[in-house]
Write a structure and sequence with these properties.
The complex is a heterodimer.
Chain A: H1 4-14, H2 22-41, H3 47-94, H4 105-129, H5 133-147, H6 174-185, H7 198-210, H8 225-235, H9 245-250, H10 262-267, H11 269-276, H12 281-293, E1 295-299, H13 305-317, E2 325-326, E3 330-332, E4 338-341, H14 345-349, H15 360-368, H16 379-405
Antiparallel strand pairs in A: 1-4, 2-3, 3-4
Chain B: H1 7-14, H2 22-51, H3 61-76, E1 87-97, E2 100-102, H4 111-117, H5 119-123, H6 130-134, E3 142-151, E4 154-163, H7 184-205, H8 222-235, E5 238-240, E6 245-249, E7 268-270, H9 273-282, E8 315-324, E9 332-338, E10 358-361, H10 372-384, E11 389-390, H11 407-430, E12 434-436, E13 440-446, H12 447-452, H13 484-493, E14 498-499, E15 503-512, E16 523-526, H14 550-563, E17 570-573, H15 587-592, E18 595-596
Parallel strand pairs in B: 16-17
Antiparallel strand pairs in B: 1-3, 2-13, 3-4, 5-8, 6-7, 6-8, 8-15, 9-13, 10-11, 10-12, 13-14, 15-16, 17-18
Helix pairs in contact in B: 2-3, 7-8, 7-14, 10-11
The chains are: A mainly alpha, B alpha+beta.
């Protein structure tokens, strides 16, 4: 206590850096002394390098810390999931048939988290004394929890403003809040049709921002809520990433895609239990559904809009096996609808010039016309023609050359004037 | 070609839609009635201006054309509204006077230009183009009125020649011409009228070939028609102007696109310079003539030949143009010369300079237009149809309300619209999306002048400005090896070249078999023309048909067959509509005033 080492660590703490052990501190001290001595002797130019290396060191340390934090979060999550799994397995064992309704996963997660928090609080005092890296990180976690800003569901995740009523910072309900976030920040919730726990999703996001101070999109780690909010607003990171598998899995707990493969489950009874009950299977199934959902309706030629909508619903209910054929660009469904892939969406969205439809009169003229217009040159014929010409030229040159050899074929010089 | 129609569709469009049915005949008949009515309207207008003098304002030719077009459209409004997709004017009304063979339908804003660029013709009263340039007709003019109507592509065209007579001004209550028309013009009118009636009767015989007089053969073929018309022309000392034709017409293919598209399965007799050449060479004993043929690949059925038989169920267009060969000591070639609008050239002072008023769209051409005006105009043109059109037809102020008092104001509005339309049209026609229908003048060149010249390049010389030649007839004189460019030059170079007045008669007839005709016997339905609307003018020709000739004997037999109601051939005429008010229009009245000839 109150030694240099302790003071150093306190300063580090202020700077949000992990404390160092005594031996490391002593090494550092000696380095400092030696470097001071060298600095006195050498020119001041070298000091820049040291500074730079220091900065780098700092950065590296920061990164290492971040990594640890992530790992911790990950392990916590794993624990939660494991716990859920076990619970469900037990439930499964108890009765297989009755469990049909989706389990409120979010609640379970919450409970688990609460337990963990409680545990952490209990062990707080003990950990203070032992300062191993793990425990340090846990301590940081605790700090975080202490700093935690609870964002209620009727407050915008990204700002404190209510656009309509300036004096209020809250909205009257969650939907108004979501609407605000969608309009002002572009916060779009994907696959709303299958979203079962909207509140949970928003709470999860709020926790991510309020507790973790982590950006929703990138790996930015803010010092506090204000920093992360500013980052997200500035970078326009106010959205839920829903592209890669991991991103989809992250929020898959709040979704229920079982409606999309109800037919499928009926057909294969043996899979039924796993599909409906096992929470671990949800991600994999949802992924399959995602693949199916990626097919978009291209066109149904002369059907009315209503028919189209019906067809679309059918198309979504249909499992992939029921399509007639897949030509690589589109699924051809038995209903006559063609379903294009999402990757080609930009082409379907293009509004191209409509194909010219001939009137009967124009059609008659075109049908009756026998004119043949000049066609472009055929490349092959032109090439052979050119080759023929070239060989002719070459032959001529060669023959000339040969004949030139025999122009002056006289053994002796004869003066023409003397003849 | 960019556009294409599937085989099944073309079968429907070219074959199935041309099968005569009740509905098809009804459309033909209605179109015929409207064109007959429009012709009568225009003839009445001209009579009122020049003969009865009941209309004080002298409407110019361009105004008369526009008024008649408006009349056609307002009449057409009452028929087949919302029942057919396409209906309208098949040929913009053209009024060609004397030497102008066809195509004279200037826009109303063009009158001043024409006067300016043709000062000589404008000032010289004796010039053959005086009435054409001034737009005011004179006594003694042959006025060729051509117009056409189509309903759903079923087309009826009509052409009639009327004569402006000097009238006796003393008695205004009983206006009479001071005398009949004499001379060459009278010969041509006589020949045209007789030829028209004969060919109509001949086509009617195609329904009952057993009634055909034996001197004309056993079947009505292309060569029979040519033989008859040639015989009549020669007995009245007339020449047949190139461009005359007796051809089958089909839905949307009524000859309006001739020369632009090479029509598949062309069936008809045409008269061109090459036929005159053949007639000349028939009398000579020259053997070693190498025939020049251009080697452009073409479909055989698109080349018109006389080698066909007229059969029932077809619709024919009889379009005959005659030019008198009076006071011509030598034999010569009658040809057509296209009028151009290039000013400032060192041209013959008597040459007519004018631009054509009507255009026709060439659908096989495509081009992305640069000007917005032209793009808009092209959309309008495409919507308008496949028939020739005038720019004033595309104006928003067209058709003119004929019953309103202020026709002049409406004409001024159209004049204003024309300016922007012309701007767009120049880009469209420069890129060949539309082709001008040519104004043609009948010229006579003595044969000796042509025979003295030589044209070593023959078919190789290509006339890019040659107007509307039919496939297989690109070279006007293939045996003598005179190309179209050379012929143009010959016309210019010869001092003996003359312009000839032209008489034109054009009718459309439907050959109805017994199962669709109203009387139950096979009959010929004459869509346009006939004694009611196209009555011949008062003329005296010094020629008459020589009854010893077997062909002419056959013609007389034919005419007596048409008179014989019981055993003869039946020809039914479509009559013009009565002046019905809009309130009690109904089709029954239109049907009831058809009568048998």
């Amino acid at each position: 206590m109150k030694c240099d080492w302790h003071r150093y660590n306190l300063k580090r703490k202020v700077a949000q850096l992990p404390p160092v052990s005594e031996s490391v501190f002593n090494d550092k001290m000696q380095q400092m002394i030696s470097s001071n001595q060298t600095n006195n002797t050498t020119s001041k130019n070298s000091s820049g390098d040291a500074k730079l290396s220091k900065r780098e060191q700092k950065r590296k340390e920061k990164e290492a810390l971040l990594k640890k934090k992530r790992q911790l979060l990950e392990t916590a999550r794993q624990n939660i999931l494991k716990a859920i799994e076990e619970q469900q397995k037990q439930a499964e064992l108890n009765n297989v048939m009755t469990v049909e309704e989706p389990i409120p996963i979010a609640n379970i997660i919450k409970d688990q988290q609460m337990e963990i928090e409680m545990k952490e609080e209990k062990g707080e005092e003990e950990e203070k004394e032992e300062l191993t890296p793990d425990q340090l990180a846990e301590k940081l976690m605790k700090e975080k929890i202490a700093n935690k800003v609870e964002i209620p569901i009727n407050v915008c995740l990204f700002c404190n403003h209510n656009q309509r009523e300036k004096h209020l910072s809250t909205f009257k309900d969650m939907d108004a809040n979501i609407d605000h976030m969608f309009r002002c920040h572009g916060f779009y919730i994907p696959e709303q049709k299958y979203l079962v726990d909207k509140e949970g999703l928003i709470k999860y996001m709020a926790e991510k921002i309020g507790l973790g101070n982590v950006c929703l999109v990138c790996s930015y780690q803010g010092k506090n809520l204000e920093a992360v909010r500013n980052h997200m607003l500035a970078k326009r990171h106010c959205k839920i990433p829903y592209e890669t598998l991991n991103e989809k899995l992250e929020i898959s707990e709040f979704y229920d895609f079982t409606s999309t493969y109800s037919n499928y489950s009926k057909k294969s009874n043996d899979k039924e239990t796993t599909v409906t009950i096992n929470a671990n299977n949800i991600p994999s199934n949802s992924e399959g559904n995602d693949n199916e959902d990626e097919w978009e309706d291209i066109s149904s030629d002369d059907e009315e809009v209503e028919d189209k909508n019906e067809g679309e619903e059918e198309a979504e209910e249909d499992i992939p096996e029921e399509y007639l054929y897949n030509d690589g660009m589109a699924l051809h469904l038995p209903t006559g609808i063609k379903v294009g892939h999402r990757s080609l969406q930009r082409y379907f969205n293009q509004s191209l010039k409509p194909e010219k439809i001939l009137t009967e009169g124009q059609g008659t003229l075109v049908a009756a016309d026998t004119r043949s217009f000049v066609t472009g040159f055929d490349k092959k014929i032109v090439q052979t023609q050119q080759r023929v010409w070239q060989s002719e030229v070459n032959d001529k040159k060669r023959n000339e050359k040969r004949s030139a050899k025999f122009i002056n074929h006289q053994p002796h010089y004869r003066d023409q004037l003397l003849q | 070609m960019e556009l294409a129609v599937s085989h099944e569709d073309s079968q429907i469009l070219l074959k199935d839609k041309n099968v005569l049915q009740e509905s098809v005949i009804d459309k033909y008949r209605t179109a015929g009635q409207i064109s007959q009515t429009a012709l009568r309207y225009l003839i009445n207008l001209i009579n009122n201006i020049y003969h009865y003098k009941s209309i004080q304002r002298q409407l110019t030719i361009s105004e008369l054309c526009l008024l008649t077009d408006s009349f056609i459209l307002t009449r057409l409004e009452q028929y087949y509204k919302n029942k057919v997709n396409e209906r309208g004017i098949a040929i913009p009304t053209t009024i060609s006077v004397d030497q102008v063979a066809s195509g004279w339908c200037p826009e109303i804003d063009d009158d001043e230009n024409i006067k300016k660029s043709n000062k000589e013709q404008f000032s010289n009263e004796t010039s053959p183009f005086n009435s054409t340039v001034t737009g005011v007709l004179k006594p003694g003019d042959l006025v060729k009125i051509t117009l056409g109507v189509h309903i759903d592509g079923y087309t009826s065209e009509i052409s009639h020649t009327m004569v402006i007579y000097p009238v006796d001004a003393s008695d205004m209550n009983n206006v009479k011409p001071t005398g009949p028309l004499l001379g060459g013009k009278a010969d041509a009118i006589a020949a045209a009228h007789i030829a028209m009636e004969t060919v109509t009767a001949l086509l009617a015989c195609a329904l009952t070939p057993e009634k055909l007089p034996p001197s004309l053969g056993s079947n009505v073929t292309g060569s029979t028609i040519r033989n008859v018309v040639d015989t009549i022309a020669s007995s009245y000392n007339c020449g047949i102007v190139p461009g005359s034709r007796v051809r089958r017409i089909r839905r949307f293919l009524a000859g309006q696109n001739e020369g632009i598209i090479a029509e598949r399965e062309y069936k008809g007799v045409i008269w061109t310079e090459s036929h005159e050449e053949a007639k000349l060479l028939a009398n000579t004993e020259v053997k070693d003539i190498s025939v020049i043929t251009s080697n452009t690949p073409r479909v055989a059925s698109a080349v018109p030949t006389d080698n066909f038989t007229v059969v029932k169920g077809e619709v024919y267009l009889i379009d005959l143009k005659f030019a008198p060969l009076e006071n011509l000591s030598k034999r010569g070639l009658i040809t057509l010369n296209t009028v151009d609008s290039f000013t400032g050239k060192s041209h013959d002072i008597n040459q007519l300079v004018a631009r054509s008023g009507s255009y026709i769209r060439d659908y096989s051409q495509s081009y992305q237009l640069k000007l917005k005006t032209s793009r808009q105009l092209l959309t309008k043109i495409d919507r308008q149809g496949v028939y020739p059109f005038k720019l004033s037809h595309l104006s928003d102020n067209f058709p003119i309300d004929l019953n309103s008092g202020n026709v002049d104001e409406e004409l001024d509005l159209i004049k204003k619209d024309l300016r922007s339309l012309r701007l767009g049209m120049s880009e469209i026609s420069n890129n060949y999306l539309c082709v001008e229908t040519p104004i043609q003048i009948a010229k006579w060149v003595p044969w000796d002048h042509i025979l003295k010249s030589n044209n070593p390049n023959g078919v190789l010389s290509y006339d890019a400005t040659a107007a509307l030649t039919l496939p297989g007839h690109e070279v006007p004189l293939p045996k003598l090896g005179i190309s179209s460019l050379k012929l143009k030059q010959l016309i210019k170079s010869s001092k003996e070249t003359l312009e000839l007045p032209v008489v034109r008669e054009c009718n459309a007839v439907v050959l109805c078999d017994s199962d669709i005709s109203s009387t139950g016997k096979p009959e010929l339905l004459r869509l346009t023309g006939g004694s009611k609307t196209c009555s011949p003018s008062w003329i005296h020709s010094k020629y008459e048909l020589n009854s010893t000739d077997p062909t002419i004997q056959g013609i007389f037999d034919l005419m007596s067959l048409t008179k014989d109601k019981r055993f003869g051939i039946s020809i039914r005429e479509t009559q013009p509509m009565k002046e019905i008010s809009n309130k009690n229009k109904n089709k029954n009245t239109a049907n009831s005033d058809e009568m048998e000839m």
